[in-house]
Amino acid sequence: MGLACRPPAQVGTPVTHWSAADLRDAFAARRDGADVSAATIGRELAAAELKPHRQRYFLTSRDPDYDAKLADIVRLYLEPPPGATILSLDEKPSIQAVSRKHLDLPMQPDHPMVYREFEYVRHGVMHLFAAFNVRTGRVLADVQKNKTRFEFIELLERCAWHYRQGPVHCVVDNASYHSTAEVKQWLADHPRFVFHFTPKHASWLNQVECWFSILSKKVLRRGSFEDQRALAKALRAFVAHWNDNAHPFAWAYGKELIHERGLPAA
Description:
Distance between the termini: 44 Å
CATH class of the largest domain: Alpha Beta
Radius of gyration: 25 Å
Oligomer: single chain
Order of helices and strands: HHHEEEHEHEHHH
Helix content: 25-40%
Number of strands: 5
CATH architecture of the largest domain: 2-Layer Sandwich
CATH topology of the largest domain: Nucleotidyltransferase, domain 5
CATH superfamily of the largest domain: Ribonuclease H-like superfamily/Ribonuclease H
Number of helices: 8
Largest sheet: 5 strands, mixed
């Protein structure tokens, strides 16, 4: 299996990743024509739980304050300040209003799944600004045509109107318009609000991303929208539907980092 764990180019095979057949040929070339079938290679890969045909992306954060920011946000989730509102804010940008050229074929006894024609028509994009309440799971959201500091401030204004008492801690990522002069002035005018920035390349710490994932699966992935207005209507309808049965996420990540490793607070 050592051969399977090496990049093909290192052994002179001009492909980007191994298949069972490629491994068979490379193994035979290195072992003077050893007769091993692709099926055998496939079984050995499965037994070793190796999947050279699959790939998963990752991104290393080089934020020098990574540990401190992580600990700060995890503490906010797991040990929130008494009486404080914890909001997770972000934007889901450039959501395409896409319609299908032909109607889907619905499920029937002889068609046990929905069939979809692959051709589609684009009608522009919309941007969804959302604030996820970490304690209750409720969502405040705005659908916007633009994605700038001004639309972000509109979301903050909505949060300030909705959560009128007590401190409000906001988890946000490092998008440039989260730190503009206008946003800083808004924070100065609203001292109840405090921003907690995720480490660079670690937006997965922002719980609203979990909610965006649910939205994508339930509304966008199979959605068909004749125009931007239809897309906006669908997004708002899902927000209302979610809030009717809102629930927080059972966040568990980081507890051991704080209590066992003693990461410092930010």
